[in-house]
Every structure is written in C-alpha cells, then in structure tokens.
Amino acid sequence: MTMGLLSVGGSALWTAAVGAALHTIEPLFFLLGSVAAVPITLSSLRVGRALYRFAVEQTPTDRERTYIQRLLVEKDPAKEIRADELGGFLRARFAAQLMARNGLYAELFTLRASAFGLHEPPSPAST
C-alpha cells in the first residue's frame, strides 16, 4: 500500500514536471497532450474498476481452491481424505466446477462472437 502511494505520488510529480516543461517550450503541445490524456485516463479508470470487480468475484473461488489444495497436498489432511474415502466427492466437485467454468467460457465466447460475427462457441474439449 505504501509503495503504491509513493508510486502514484512520484508519477503525479513526474507528470506535472513534464507538463510544465512542455507548456514552457510549446503551449500547443501541452494543450494537445492534455486533451489526449482525458480518454486514456477514463479508459484506465474503467479497466481498473473491471479488474477490481473481477478480483472480488474470484475471491471465494480462489479461497476454496487454495483450501482444497492444502487438503490434498498436506500430509495429515490427505490421510484423512483417504481414510474417509472423500476422493470421489472432491473429484465430482472439481468436475462440476470445471463444467461451470466451461459454461462461463462459452458465454464469454458468445459475447465476443457477436462483435466479430461468429456464431458457434468452441467445444469444451478444445478449451
């Protein structure tokens, strides 16, 4: 967090210094640069929001994946899974999540396909 704040502060100072130098050398270039910065800033904010929403949506899945990985990799929990014969249950759960994810991929392909005029999603075996 501190490094990010320092990075933003340094970037803001650098931008102000370049802007001041450009305004001193050629005010028209400063104006053109300022106008060009507006759409870049707006698109960066939109992408940042989308990435944040994606991270929030993926957090529960990532936590569950990490927990199951710990269960399967660490020695004591793996012994309990074998003793309780939970391997089939975990395998079925993984398969269900995989199918749900493939459905999400098909939905994303459909959205992209509409933009490019394509019509059929790829088969799950090819993804």
Please explain how this structure is put together.
The protein contains four helices and no strands. The protein is mostly helical. The protein has a domain at 1-62. Helix 1 runs antiparallel to helix 2 and helix 2 (27-73) crosses helix 3 (75-83). The mean pLDDT is 78.
Compute the average pLDDT: 78
Number of helices: 4
Shape: elongated
What pattern of helices and strands is seen along the backbone?
A: HHHH
The amount of beta strand, in percent, is under 5%
How far is it from the N-terminal to the C-terminal residue, by CA?
37 Å
| Largest sheet: number of strands, sense, barrel closure | none
List the helices and strands and how they pair.
Elements: H1 2-25, H2 27-73, H3 75-83, H4 87-116
Helix pairs in contact: 1-2, 2-3
Outline:
The protein has helices at 2-25, 27-73, 75-83, 87-116.
Features of the shown structure:
single chain; 127 residues; mainly alpha
